[in-house]
Amino acid sequence: MRTALSQEVKSYIDRLERKVNKYAEPKQRDELSKSTEPFANAIINSKEMITDATVANVSAVIAAFPDLVSNALDDHYTREVVNAIPGYVKRTMALPGLTAARLPSKVTNGYLKEAVHTYVLGLPQACVALSRVALEQALKEALGRQLSGEFVRFQDLLQEARRWNILDKRTEAIARAVANAGNEVLHEKPIDLDKAYDVLTKVGGLLEHIYSGEGKF
Q1: 146-177 pLDDT, tens per residue?
Q2: Contact by Cβ (8 Å): 149, 206
Q3: Is the four-CA dihedral 60, 66, 71, 75 of positive or negative sign?
Q4: Is the domain of 143 the same as that of 159?
Q5: Residue 100 in contact with residue 211, Cβ under 8 Å?
Q6: Whole-angstrom distance between the N-terminal and C-terminal Cα of the chain?
Q7: Measured between alpha carbons, how far is residue 47 from residues 62, 65, 72, 76, 110 in Å?
Q8: Cβ–Cβ < 8 Å for 182, 132
Q9: DSSP state of 103
């Protein structure tokens, strides 16, 4: 069995680093190891979060040394992604395949795809929020309400879906559990990847049911 490509890339990066260190002076090696990653993290934090005035000067550094910043970020993200790939693979392998008699709309499938993608990337909060949206869009589509522009409460969607046999008692209960998980994420109750997996697989099963069932509005 051949070595995984991500491991080969990681080994190549390690070889490049050893080569740089071989020809650098000890002081230079120490400065490189101490400055590059913290510098990249400072740049990223200034973009991802509200930060204090001590990080506000980052914009000036970016303007003055764009190539240096770009290379530092490229280095950071390359290493981060390569190191994360085994996790991506593991989470993708763990997900069940999804099939149904009818295909969802591009809107519904788009939200589902993004929910799966965020799970694979290890972003549980985003995964649960998007999973809930995917389910909501599936119910709207099944009820002829998708892209209507009208606001419909999730509770009302569930009641209509039961009325038209799109959901049964069991699947309605699962849908409520998904909605509750989404609400928790939006109301200061962060979750982990195990919970995100549970929600995502529930939504996948519900969508298979909705798009393979006999219920019609």
Answers
A1: 887 788 899 999 999 999 999 999 999 999 99
A2: no
A3: positive
A4: yes
A5: yes
A6: 52
A7: 12, 17, 15, 15, 26
A8: yes
A9: P
- C-beta separation of 161 from 142 below 8 A: yes
What are residue 214's phi and psi, to 5 degrees?
-95, -10
Alpha helices (H) in the chain, listed in sequence order: 5-23, 26-48, 53-56, 58-64, 66-94, 106-120, 124-142, 154-163, 169-186, 193-210
* pTM of this structure: 0.87
| Residue 21 domain flag | yes
Token pair of 160, please?
């209509």
Q: Which among 187, 186, 185, 179 is positioned nearest to 206, based on CA atoms? A: 179
48-81, pLDDT tens digit by residue? 888 776 656 777 888 888 898 899 899 999 999 9
Are residues 112 and 59 located together in one domain of the fold?
A: no
Are both 50 and 129 inside the same structural domain? no
